[in-house]
Amino acid sequence: MGTTNINPSNPDSNQGSSLIEDIINGMFDWVRVLDRNDNIIYINKAMSEALDNLKTGEKCYKAIGRSAPCENCISRRTVFEGQSHEKEETIKDRIYSVMSSPVKDQNGEIIAVVEVLRDITQMKLLQKKITEQNHKLQSDLRIARKLQCSLLPKSFPEDKISFSFIYRPCETIGGDFLDIFKIDEDHVGVYIADVSGHGVPASMLTVFLRSSINKKLLSPAAVLKELYNEFNNSNFDQDLYITVFYAIFSLKENKIRFSNAGHNVCPILFNKGKFEILRSAGIPISNWMTAPDYSDKFVNFTSGDKVFLYTDGIVELKNDTNEQYGEKRLLDILLNASSGSGETLNNIADSACKFAGIDTTAEIPDDITMALVEIR
């Protein structure tokens, strides 16, 4: 194949062969053809010039400065197996992708191997930079996750109330958040929130929420109104918003005052087979309107009552028939629970993940956040 074969009886064949050789010689990629004994029997112009005017007849490995065949020689594999193979090869400090394909005669016998070598040095350098940046990003996200988790409740030493929760973001950092805090000797505040989206933007809004929410006012509606105004003053994008359910437990009056800013899964007050869903309506914390209307609602509690707070990540898990886990399955576990609050939450998480066919340690489609407030 060092010269073009010409069929004198067929001028068209002559023209076609010349055209093909012109095309191959016009390629920036290197092209060479090897016989079954590793000899170069054809080389295109780009490869010949790059390798100091390399000529045909040399061993393929000597042409790239080696004294023996490559240990991972794909040319021989191509001959033996009759299939194309690909590898990467370093030649003169450049990295090449080498694709080796069989050349067969009219009887289907492999008589040679054609190899195309493409310089991928810049691509490999770019991949390396991307990998390094990705490692740095992952490191930064791990730090951000630690910071976000450090903002979650650690403990709540209160005689009349105990608090347990599960927080599982679907990414390294999440958009769900919850908190519990003592307002004064007679009042305890609890809220749960779900930020639009996931990842870094969502996590930044959880930081805004925790730093902006007023922990002194005794009206959840007033707190949400103030939070809404603060959000608007921060000039967030219109596609960003936060849903928040906020409740204040009055320990002297045995009463819960609550208000809702668009949180679509309302908490459940329950005890010994009975339950009440704490429904309330309100617009999410956003910049969708100028004067949202939030209102306070009240419900009484007794000793032994529990309040279950959660985000929609748990009830919206789906099985292989696209059926959601739903509120009913969740209620069945809550109303029949005989274990402690922490174990009850774990049972719900295990049940929902099993329903959806996912491992409890695997990636989940949405953040899962749940909490139980037990009144003693």
Provide structural commentary:
There is one protein chain. The protein is of the alpha+beta class and 376 residues long. The protein is 31% helix and 28% strand. It is built from nine helices and 15 strands. It has a five-stranded antiparallel sheet with strand order 2-1-5-4-3. A five-stranded antiparallel sheet has the order 6-15-14-11-12. The protein has a five-stranded antiparallel sheet with strand order 7-8-9-10-13. It starts with 10 loop residues before the first helix and ends with a strand.
Short summary of the structure?
The chain is α+β, with helices and mostly antiparallel strands.
SSE blueprint and pairings:
Blueprint: H1 11-25, E1 30-34, E2 40-43, H2 45-50, H3 74-81, E3 85-91, E4 94-104, E5 110-119, H4 121-150, E6 161-168, E7 176-184, E8 187-195, H5 199-212, H6 220-233, E9 242-250, E10 255-261, E11 268-271, E12 274-277, E13 297-300, E14 306-310, H7 312-315, H8 326-335, H9 341-356, E15 368-375
Antiparallel strand pairs: 1-2, 1-5, 3-4, 4-5, 6-15, 7-8, 8-9, 9-10, 10-13, 11-12, 11-14, 14-15
